[in-house]
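Researcher: Structure for this, please.
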Amino acid sequence: MARIEIVPSDAPIGAEIRGVDLSKGIDDATFAEIDEALSEHGVIFLSGQRVTPAQQVDFSRRFGELEVNAFSKFALEDNPAVLVVSNIKKDGKDIGYADAGSHWHTDMSYTRTPPRLTMLYAVEVPLKNGQPLGDTWFASACAAYEDLPPDLKKKIDGKRAVHRFAAKERGVKKPVQLTADQIAKNPDVIHPVVRSHPVTRRKALYVRKGECIAIEAMPEEEALPLIAELSDRITRPEYIYRHKWKVGDLLMWDNALVQHWAPRDYEWPDRRLMLRTTVNGSVPF
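Model: Predicted structure, C-alpha cell format:
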C-alpha cells in the first residue's frame, strides 16, 4: 500500500493527494483513501501524473460506470469515454469541446442520473509570463446550504426544480449549437432543490440559474428569483476553491457537492488541452 498524504486547501473544498503515481497502478486500500477524500473534500487533485487515456479510463472505472458526454463528437476516436476539452484548432476547426465549463454549473444535471464525478487530466496548459491561465473555479454548494438562514432552508425544504438541457439562457460565452437529436435525447428532468450526498448524506444546494427553469408548484415569478438567489449564494467568494493548472494535474470533483466554472482568460493560439472522463451517478435524493 502506498503511503499517501491528503493536503486540504484553505477553502471549504479542495485537497491535494500526494504520494500516488497512477501510471504504476494503485491497490484497493489506496484507492479507498482517494475515494473517501473525494466525498469529504469535493475536489481533489494529483500533480505530476503521466497517464495514458487508457490508464485514465481504468482509474475512472474504479469509481463507477463511465458516462458518454452529450458532446461526444469531441471524444477520442478510439475511446468514446474520453472527451477532448481544448481550444486547439486543426485546419481551422476545434479538435475538442472549446467552451466546456464557460458558465457556473453542475455537470449534466439535466440527466436522470447526473454524474457522480468528473475527471480532468491536463495535457497542455496556456501560460502568460510564466503563469498558468485557464483556472477552474469550484464552489461548495454544501457550505452554501449549511449557511442558509433557517427561514430560507424551511422555504426550500422538499422543493424540486426542473432542469433543462436546452435552457435558453445558459450563460455561455459563445452559445453552443444544439442539434434536434441532442435535445430529444435529453428531456427535462426534476431533481430536489437540496440533494443529499449519496455517501456522506451531507446536504447541498442543487440549482443553477440558466439551467433550472422552474420549481414545482411555485409560480414562475417566485421560482426564478429564488433560483437566482440560491445560485448567487453558492458562488460567494468564501465558498470558492480556484485551481491553477499544471501539466500533469489529474483533478476530479464530486458533482453532488460542488459547482464549477472555467472562465476563458486565454485565446488561440494559446493552447489548452484536457482529457475528461465522467463517472455516472444515481438519482438525486
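Researcher: Any notable elements?
Model: The longest helix spans residues 220-234. Residues 169-175 have pLDDT under 50 and may be disordered.
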